[in-house]
Structures are given as structure tokens and as C-alpha cells.
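Listing S7. Sequence submitted for prediction.
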Amino acid sequence: MFFHFFQYVKFLLNSTNQHGVHSPFVYRLVTTCFYTKVDKKQIAQYREIQKNALQVRNVNLSKLSCKKPELLLKVIGYFKPITSLEIGNASEHFASTVKIAQHNATVTTIANTPETADDKANLLKAIKNKPYDMIFFNSTEKATLSYFESCLSSVHNETFFIFKDLYQSKEMRTTWAKIKQHPKITVTVDVYDYGFVFMRKEQQKEHFKIRL
């Protein structure tokens, strides 16, 4: 508990709003996406999906719920990804959430344990010759870095990654630091609950922490 409290306070002290952002790309993201209101109908649809999922026996709510679903819906509506890959959630909950904001989206879901040969094979099959617009990482700290490195072969200039629970552990903080320093990564945006990663070649390498 103390670790999470300390990390949140540290984040608040080191983060900024749109006034501390000098990148036009990130400034537009913050002002026309993060700081706008989400469609109430979309939130109602999300709550209905969540409600229906809870009716399934032995459902784990923590695995089905998206942190800050309003933000996720706004980001999907802003970038409008058509092809998405989700790593780490075996339900249809995330796919349904994506399609609320982007009706014609297709979402591929794979497990989050690359330690097994079958799961690693599933990942390689999913990314082979198929660039994705968005890749969502909801995986364990141990698996995240391995998946991240593998997925770099399946991106284009506008692809973005979303990482969940950046501050859940010291291991995840270390993983996030390694991701930020990867030579293919140009821009990262840390909003505490999620980390957004971009590989836009026209951008200079910058890292941002944004308060929502």
C-alpha cells in the first residue's frame, strides 16, 4: 500500500498538464482527447458490457474492468484503430469495449505467458506479416517486456501501444523504464493508470507525464 501511495505522490509532483507540453502531437492528444468529455452513451454501453460479464460464473472483475474506461474510449475514438491486438485477457470484454468507440475494429486476443511454447507460438502467429494499429498490454511484469520486443516487428508509423498498471510494482517500473529507452520508441505518455507509447519517426524522443 505504501509503495502505491508513494508512487502516486511522486507521479503528481513530476507530472504536468497541457501547459507543460511543447510537442504539437502530444499537446493535441492532451487537449483534444484526454481533456475532453466522453460520450455518455458509450459509458452506458461499457457498463452494460461489464454487467453482462459479471453474470458469467467465476468471473474475476479485476480482469474484466478497464481502469479509467472513459480515457480508453476517448483514446480509441481519437486514433480510430482498425486492427488491434490485446495481450493478457482471455475474455471478449476488451474487444467489446474497443468496438464501442470504433465499430469496425477487429481485435485479436492472446494469453500473457510467453514462457510456454504454445503461447509464444500464438503470439508469433498473431503478429506475422500483420501490422497492428493498436496493441494493448495487460500482462504480467515478467511477460510484458518479452511481448513488447516481439510486437515491435508488427508496427507501422502510426501504431501505438497501451500499457496497463505502470505503477503496480517495482518490476513494472523497471520494465517501463526499459521500454522508454528502446531505440524504436520516440514518444511515451504516462498518465499513471496507462502508459502510451508511439514510434512516430517524425517525432523527437520525448517522455511525458500528464495529470488527468
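Caption to Listing S7: primary sequence and predicted C-alpha cells for the chain studied. The chain has a mean pLDDT of 86. The chain has one domain: 2-209.
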